[in-house]
Amino acid sequence: MNNTMFPNISILGIGTALPAYRIEQGEVLDKLEEALQDSPNSVRWARKIFKQCGVATRYTCEPNLIAHGSTSRYLPSEGLNDVPSTAERMGIYKRESIPLALEAARDALQDGDIEGSQITHLITVSCTGQFLPGLDAVIVKELDLSPRVSRIPLTFQGCAAGLKAIQLARTLMEGQSDRQILIVCVELCTLHFQPSSEREALFGASFFGDGASACVIGAADKNRKGLFQLGEGHSVLMPDCSEEMIWEVGNYGFDLYLSTNIPKLLGRYLSAEMESLLAGNESPNLWAIHPGGRGIVDVIQQMYELRDDQVQYSRGILHDYGNLSSATILFVLKAMREDLASREAESSSGVALAFGPGLTAELLKFTYLPSAILQERTIDHVHS
């Protein structure tokens, strides 16, 4: 559907939240080296990936992760007797996900100057934990949403799910300008760190972090400032990539496998999808890239000859917070919006990209508008 039919569907407010415990990359590496002192090959691998992944700090909801190496139950050890079970990790997830989700949601509502009673749809997103009644039911109660709000949980869809939720919200808004859609993403990735010296486990432990993000999507009125107007987008399942990103439930949390071939595969398949999205138009100025890893940002920057300032938001979020799975894309968009507003930037076209298991890619066009007045002029031009 052509975006000119509904040009005022926008992100009205964005909120984020982080847990209390900060992880310094160097400290984690020190703990791993201590735990892996009998596995020199694993130590060399850990040093390499920790120094090359583009992360300096992250956050975790689990204080035991930052405990002394000999007392941390998540670090490699001689046995599995004291390693947290999946049930224990899910108990921590239930306890810790709720306050983070509520903080991010309240932040987004306040940022958009929207009351909870105005929300008509609630989309909750997470791939790092589950419980029932779910996060959606808790949010309805704690934020005084209508008990009749339409609740849509997106679970176990990986890093791409945050942008998938935005795309879904945009679809729900088409022709329904009275709707207000709240999206809440919460991911506690560090709960699934594995006490293993295997390369896959160490790779995942090098750059994932915890956090929550939220946004409100609706029809913007003339008083709105600093908007991301949502354009056309699509999702694609890339061929012959199903084994490159795997996330399975194990006895000691969720077992993650990430192939080092993912940046190369994106380089092979993403061009055709971008050509379809842009439909012959010029490459946009703004790029909100989900930093699933440093290599992903690197390959997209190279493919489209992007300037460093065009990928600064993605690299900055990766550096300061790590990969927050589905919550990350809203961290990137928030950082972008704050920078554009501080510079009093003019309207500019953009594209958001996120990637998940499958290998799935989510692609969405957007436009930054410093004022909804510009948006009204666009609508007037379309109808004239």
TrEMBL record:
GO terms for molecular function: acyltransferase activity, transferring groups other than amino-acyl groups. Gene3D superfamilies: 3.40.47.10. Residues 10-219 form the Chalcone/stilbene synthase N-terminal domain. One of its GO terms (biological process) is polyketide biosynthetic process. Residues 237-364 form the Chalcone/stilbene synthase C-terminal domain. Coiled coil: none annotated. It comes from the Bacteria. Signal peptide: none annotated. The active site is at residue 159. Transmembrane segments: none annotated. Belongs to the thiolase-like superfamily. Chalcone/stilbene synthases family. This is Stilbene synthase.
